[in-house]
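for the recovery benchmark. tokens below, seq after
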């Protein structure tokens, strides 16, 4: 039991380190404000949620954000890291929980779809009520100033509600889909590594995804 727990901890740590590295590479997207950039750091967390359980996915999300803030420094008084943690955790926990209940390709797809929906809901609520108001207060700005920055990328963004509708929702939907598309085939390849010490026949787990 001790060896198994240590093995799981090592896997979570490795995935957390991978997520940290991926978090440092951000890609700007057209039609989105320059402070909304896509990265692939949720992939290791989603892999961990599928292979080790939904809680492991959340722990990986926590590790990458704490390490990123500690190493690179937080420019948002940790609110940005908190947002990334909450949004990413909503995605990977939902997907991992549904997959864990009945491991199959169908539940994996269902989990990722519902995970994307959870991700969008949490991102929308947090941005509207916490993140944008806090940013405005922190930097001595008004919310309309941040909206104006977003409107430079997409003129349909005219107020905070429009920012949620035309930026937060589509951005997180796109990010969630990209993460899912990359993770699904990748998990089939790396699954035997995760379960080498846990199952007698790694191919059984491999065929479930």
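predicted aa per position
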């Amino acid at each position: 039991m001790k060896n198994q727990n240590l093995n799981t901890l090592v896997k979570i740590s490795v995935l957390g380190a991978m997520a940290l590295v991926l978090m440092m590479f951000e890609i700007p997207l057209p039609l989105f404000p320059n402070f909304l950039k896509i990265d692939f750091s949720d992939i290791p967390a989603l892999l961990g949620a599928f292979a080790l359980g939904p809680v492991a996915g959340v722990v990986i999300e926590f590790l990458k954000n704490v390490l990123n803030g500690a190493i690179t420094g937080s420019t948002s008084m940790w609110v940005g890291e908190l947002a990334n943690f909450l949004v990413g955790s909503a995605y990977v926990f939902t997907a991992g929980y549904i997959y864990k209940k009945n491991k199959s390709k169908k539940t994996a797809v269902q989990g990722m779809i519902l995970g994307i929906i959870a991700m969008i809901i949490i991102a929308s609520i947090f941005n509207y009520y916490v993140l944008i108001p806090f940013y405005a207060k922190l930097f001595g700005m008004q919310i309309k100033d941040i909206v104006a920055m977003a409107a430079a990328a997409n003129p349909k963004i005219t107020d905070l509600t429009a920012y949620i509708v035309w930026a937060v929702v589509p951005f997180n939907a796109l990010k969630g889909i990209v993460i899912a598309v990359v993770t699904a085939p990748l998990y089939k390849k790396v699954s035997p590594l995760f379960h080498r010490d846990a199952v007698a026949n790694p191919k059984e787990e491999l065929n479930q995804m």
